[in-house]
Amino acid sequence: MTDNIQQSRSDEISLKDLILKIKEWMAYLKTQWWKVAIAGIIGGAIGFVYAWIQPITYTAKTTFVVEDAKSSGGLSGLASLAGQFGVDVGGGGGGGLIAGDNILLYFKSESLAREVLLSPISENDKNISLADVYINSHGLKKAWSKNDKIGQVSFPPVSSKQTLTRLQDSLIQAIIRDRILKKQFSIAKIDKKAGFIQLSVTMQNESLAKLYCDRLVQVAVERYIDLKTERQKKTVEKLQARVDSIANLISKKTSTTASLQTAASTMDVNPLFKTGTIVATEQTTRDKTMLTAVYGEVVKNLELAKFTLSQETPVIQIVDQDNFPLKKKKESKIVSVVICGILFGFFFIFYIIFIRVIRGIMS
Length: 363
Hints:
Blueprint: H1 2-31, H2 33-53, E1 57-67, H3 76-83, H4 102-107, H5 110-117, E2 120-123, E3 126-129, H6 130-137, H7 140-145, H8 166-184, E4 185-189, E5 196-203, H9 206-265, H10 271-312, E6 315-321, E7 327-329, H11 333-362
Antiparallel strand pairs: 1-5, 1-6, 1-7, 2-3, 4-5
């Protein structure tokens, strides 16, 4: 019983000491209010300067949906007919490489960004690359010119005959990896259950952000469709070459047959000559009939291949695309002042508490 009473008194004393200690700290902090206020003012000033030096950025967004090719399973019967001539008209190429969510990684490829940056743009009646516009609008050209190891650098459009030097290659790789893909570009599905994909580009130049976003979609769509239909296009080209070749042979056989028939009908006193002409006419007519039959089958296969190509060509539809003026973002000076001021004030409070505790321990 006595132990319980002593324990209760000990708890009361400990709680009382805790309350007194808190009051002591509060009284001490009140004496330091001016230091905390100065720390808050300094933090607010730093927040103001930070918000002031941050550039205005513009964001361009594009939303699109990819409609996959229809299955060609129902064409298996006709495809087998084409197979008799050694022609494969089934399944387009490239599906495994960029199927499903792989298209998201495809849009993030460095080669795609490089092609867009080196694409030409007309400015002041001159064709320059998009990369030159980028380095000018982001202050890189001026910074590089002050660097003895870099100096004045420009990037020729990909359509020109100039090739990039080692320095130009390294600089454009740095722009793509450290700036565009890391900070200024993003792509994601709006909803996991839906097929809508949204990409956004954020840059300091409004026109550049819009142009880069639009051109990226254009180049990506063209390359995407080429990859998906590359194999089937080769099949169509091969069949078209066969059709043209057979048609040319039929035309030659037709001319030859007409010439022989004319010669056979011409009166000639030599019966052996007539006999040879008739035999040659029959052989030419037979060859023409065979070529006509083959021509008909090859034309069927060609039309089938064209139909399969149209079925396997993906359709990328632009659902939504930003127009001028783009969404503008600028760091709020008031918000930065308040947040930085509060943070600096709290950090300074913890600092003076830490210093007093250390001094108390040392004494």
